[in-house]
Protein 1
Amino acid sequence: MTSEPLICLPGQRLCLSDQVYTSGQGTYERQGYIYSQLAGSVDIIQKDGVKIVEVHSSGEQTVVPAQGDIVTAQVYIITQQFAKCYIKGVGDTLLRRPFRALVRREDVRATEKDRVEIYKSFRPGDIILARVLPITEAHTYQLSTAENELGVVIAHSEHGHPMVPISWTEMQCTKTFVKECRKVAKVVPENVNPENSEGNVDT
């Protein structure tokens, strides 16, 4: 006789991560616990004296952001201390539902953190690339754009026109040519060899 499989939801805590249990496919480890990354059934696989906890989706895969992931988010509110965002994608995966997140002022840049001004880094509507930090509050992810490759990737000017990066700190409206401050991401195209490319957006 077999018991019914355990069904779990994305982000659900499954068990301790220790010498007996380790994270496997469809799960992730955070702060000493194993969590489900998918909606599906839990499987425990014995291998070399270790129990590997896996989750297999019975339907459409649902991913949740995990510590260290690069995510795509959209800014919707800015204050002097942080920018509130909705995480729309994890890596190359588009999420079925967004997750709330924020970028604190001290996590915008790697240097001169005390001189960072949120309104000169992001504006509501901006699409950013960011890295997920360790979770300290329930229900809210904290993000960092401190790395060169992270920051604003898509922005529109105050008049609603697309903007293009002209330096690491400015973007320019394609219609009015007005410049606005941003924390610009250095996006490296996958098909370009960095050694042969300019590797720079400065003009």
Protein 2
Amino acid sequence: MAGACSLGLLQVLLLAVARASLPGTVVRLNKAALDYVSDIGKAPLQRALQVTISDFLDPRGEVLQSTRVQILDVHLLLLHLKFIVDFGVRLSAAANFTVKVFRVPEPMELVLPVALQADVHVTRDSIGTLVLSIPTCSSTFSPASTLDGSNSTSQELLALVQEHIKADLSGKLCLRVSGLVQDLNVHLGTLIGLSPVGPESQIRYSITSEPTITSNYMSVDVRAVLFLLGKPILLPVSDAHSFVLPWPSGDEGAMATVGLSQHLFDCALQMLQKAGSLNLDITGQLNSKNNPLNTSTLGQLVPEVAHQFPEPMPVVLKVRLGATPVITLHTNNSTLKLQPFVEVLAASPNSALQFLFSLDVLVNLNLQLFVSKAKLRGTTSILGGVQLSVATSNVGSIDMDQVHAVISTVFQKPLLDHLNALLRMGIALPSVLNLHYVHSKVSVCEGYVVISSGFTYQH
């Protein structure tokens, strides 16, 4: 959870929809992300450049003879990507093409160096995903050279062959680069699909505006919508400003920096509360020496319980969260406040549950956040114990100083186990198909969370 967040408060992202707001996220791709794409993109680009060359009309004798020309190998020497301010990304590549010309009686092999440059425009489409296009692309050919062992070739013939190859490849190479970009568009479209959060809940991301592109990064504002039973979770509008992630923020050397507003966490907790996922029943067993949840133990502290239940019976704690949990994000510290309502019931001889008393509970928890497999997950521990007060009683006066130790002891572990199981399920972060977050570091700042992460792409 460690991480320096020295740049002050971020304003909360609140996008108004029918007097309600949607949680905000900022995704920033840094230079390291371009380096990674360059690295994993070399093999597919090298394969894409293996194009077919039309036959060469060899001017031997009095009649032009059609001679087959074939690319034997493409060796990609360089693939480099850099940001173009307010536009997108510039792709620069250099490759050596080994070409064979099937002349009779002896074929000719040559190496042709080619440099490629394409400007990739990055924009947002109407459905909220990134779209890439290539408005400009060019190829530059250096002089070809014959391979060692080839028969002596006149410079005139070599120039003719090279001119033929250049004319044939100029358009084809850019078409192949454009084809790779179109394949990326299909992949980028997977950002906006629904991702499950729980059995009846999902999250959907979409890009809300044109990307901001500087020489150091590309940043996009992302709307996160949480759904429960197909209905969005919307919170009242309390501000009209956008969530802005300062530069620099997080680890500048990371591939990606993801900023998550507190509003996203508020919506996630409200979704869990509305779904009833935070509710649980804690049941005592008569034959368990480690669980004092039975009428015999309570009867020693509350006389009326002993009077109503002369024979030991199991006791059940029904824990219900009527109030939405409250998360607080301070620099290097995140806490979660729960205010459960607990009904204490005992099993009667006819197996029906009989109400004994109810409790208002206040528990503060330390929240630790981490990233695993493109999901933000969490784990909690109790801060300062559990506060209990009697709400109603069907067993007369209750001395909470005596009852507190019993109830809090049996209450804490089941609550933590239940809550941590939910938090470990996690919420999917903005991502595309087959792309995973790796080596992620989570930093808590004042009112928001920053994730600095690398990526790995798995086919």
Protein 3
Amino acid sequence: MSFDNKSGLCGGILGSCDDESLFDRSFWYSFIIGVVFAAASFMYYCAPWTEFQKRRSNVIYPLRKKQNHQKYTRKVAELLPLALQEKRSKELSRMLERLIPRMGFTELCKATDYFSQDNILGLGTTGIMYKAKVPNNTFLAVKRLYDADKYKRDFVLETMIPGRHSHRNIASLLGFCIEKNERILVYNYMSNGRLSDWLLHSDEGHQTLILGWPERIHIALGLARALSWLHKKCKIVHLNLGSECVLLDNNFEPKISNFGKAKFINQMLEDHVRMRLVLIEKDVYDFGIILFELITGRRLCPWTDSCDRVDGSLMNYISNKLFTDSMDFSDVVDKSITGKGFDHKILHLLEVACDCVKPSIEQRPKMVDIYKTISAMWEGYRPWFDSERLKLSMVCPDQMICGNEIECIC
């Protein structure tokens, strides 16, 4: 501007300049148009995308939250089918205390001499059973589970079922203990131990404990009574029945224990009738194996299982007899009970055992009918059994069947 309209300068004369701007008007027109276009583009693209992202997050987050909740619910359902969550041991303990007394860990340690090996009564699949002596000079049986985390469901079932259902042929649960990772169950002490202790194993050459025939039929009767009651009244199947699960008191009254694998058949849907039948008949089959063990006096191995510590060859022999429709089992019957006037009764019980292990589950009898049959067999032995041998004190009458229902709950 200082050189405006000055002569003598090189080049042509500049045109007049005004003071409005250093830029041409076209620049501003272009600039304004660009700004307007950019703003319009932002409103058209960016604002809707921001809103979309906002709405998407509002949809995805609850969806993910719902999926995580469903996974958690499935895990809980798999862990405890009884709908009991062991979030904290205190919660579980308070729940169980409504059914069974809680016992102190310190007192149980003292009673078992701190779980000494000298007090071991037996080894099971889920725990070790110890003999415990309490201050009043009486004995208890204390079961200490191996792994609290691994056997959570077993512990709850073994606590809940005996705690809620009391019967003369179900092992009575006196108390429980939850202490950190320890899970302990306390039962009445059974002076005659387990039924398997009275059976000859494959690696034993001579049987030191021998059961008479009246004791054997009495044990069969008690087991049939308990299973009938569980199936009809409680809608429970044991699914782990064996001679190691049968405890004998001083009167040889059998007590079923080990309910860690049990199931509640009333919780199944109506369209699962076939599955319920399979589960019930599994108990019938296992009961039939116990009958064979009582008759042969030996610990048997079902041909569907793999047990190399028991006499599997004998079970295979019996199965061959069954499949060939041969009822001549005289060569496998325990010689200590034959020739004493019971042979016809032994044959009758053999027929019941064969019916229980038939391959087709539709051909197997119901436990209620089995109980009726064995109860009729027992009638001739009860006077002798009561007066001369055991002097049983019957809490409930033996005849517990009214039609198809079990009336007496002991």
